[in-house]
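Hi L.,

As promised, Peptidoglycan glycosyltransferase:
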Amino acid sequence: MNRVRYWFVVFFIFASFLAVVAKSFYIQLIKGSQYKKEYLNKLVRTITVEGKRGWIYDCKGRPIAINYPVFDLFVDPKYFFMLHKKYSQDEYYLEKEKAFFNDLGKVFLINKKRLLGILYSNPNSRFIVLKKNIPLDKYKLIKEDDNFIKAFGFVKHFRRFYPDGEFSSHVLGFCFSSNKGAEGIERYYDKFLSGLTMKEKIGLDVYKSRVAIKPTDGLNLKISLNRDIQDFVHENLKRTIELFQADKGAVIVMNPYNGQIIAMDSYPFYDNNHYSRYSYAFIKNRAVSDAFEPGSVFKLITMSAALDSGVFKGNEAVYCEKGRWRLHNKVIHDVHRFKTLNFEEIFVYSSNIGSAKIALRIGKKIFYKYLNRFGLGRKTGIDTISETKGIVKDIFNVGDVDLANMAFGQGISVSEIQLASMYSVIANGGYWVRPHFMINLFGDNSTQGYKIEKRKILKGSTVNKVKKILRDVVVYGTGKNAALKDYKTAGKTGTAQIAKHGKYQKEYVASFAGFAPFDNPRFVVVVSIFNPKRGGFYGGSVAAPLFAKIMEFVLHYYGIPQDKN
């Protein structure tokens, strides 16, 4: 009997052991991954994290768009109540909790009553954001607080900052609070600058364990903008606007050979670090988004079409009607009462009548051929947003009066960047080049450069003749205020009436577009000042002096050898 009992006890113990082993095998090996997953799900919260946005640098490698850290304060209500229950009899913990609530109120103005309301309304929640976009100094005050409770925590992310502020705001644009590009280069290159969005698990247990993954950061962007020249342009555009009490203004400095934009600014200004304070009238980049009737700076097209087509040789004389000419129902005026001018003089002294007669002689078919070659009526394709294509009438709706008006820059609208592209053709020897900002995109393991786009549109002989005319405009004609002491400049003035509601007003756009040095042009500068109300309104007196000031600074800045004569 004792033997039977013995073996029964042995069998019972052995069977119990096998049952425990089998259960352990079932829990750890068969169901282990499932139980582990359920356990972790109770301890962790999955949140969305995003890689850092790439920085933007100027042509010298100086940062002009950077990131700075900000923090979101969150609380885990379930874990808070676990701690509160565990230490409900601990006076030290309860005093610490009370002090921490007071600290939150002082630093973040979070009302204790409201905070408790959030906690008690969501007792089983694992993640509630209490305060967003906390700066680093306030983050440290709480994070390093001796009373800090581990049921609270911070999520770190980054916001955009622009060291140059309003000086380069129209070019760079800005990002929304979500760190997505909203304007300018920030928006155009958003998909490259943005970091990849990924999921991250944050442990919220008593040990504050954290399972982290490193998100992929966005690419950095180097652009052709030179911060020194940009700042100089900005300050002097501002002075010119104030001097002439103008409404708007725009300036572009461009490399005519590769299309790089060295500087671009427009007025009114705005600070992209505080973009929400401004209406879109301040935010828009008028150098690319505004189309306007350019006036006599557009005569570059007329002279180029006339010479390149072979209809004019450049030595013809045209009778300019003593300053007043009726064409059908339209009367065209010149500022001065010219009689007969030769081809060059028509543009040097800016005769509208002479320009109109030249355009009518070459005809609208040839004229439109060269509008198309210069890319007018369509976007240049510059790498920013909101570019206008300008306004060019359908050729089938163009009569003699329309063609005559277009010959001297009325009845047709262009943008400032289109003017810069036009004058670059003459400066670089006859090539249309696509304007752009990008030099390269680069990351840890990759670099992507910009491919220059250019096409030949004018004969070399045409370019040489047009260059000489533009030089004489500065020496003898309407552009004398664009002359420099150390360098030969060339360009064209423009003064155009502003049309509103179909009627021309007593308001003007004063422009000057040109290049230097004359023998080997390095830069194109275009200036347009809208509705100057004091001190004159002609391009030669309003825009040409600013052109000269900017061009002189740029040439000396880059150490361009001075002209001997």
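The first helix runs from residue 2 to 30.

Thanks again for sending the construct details.

K.
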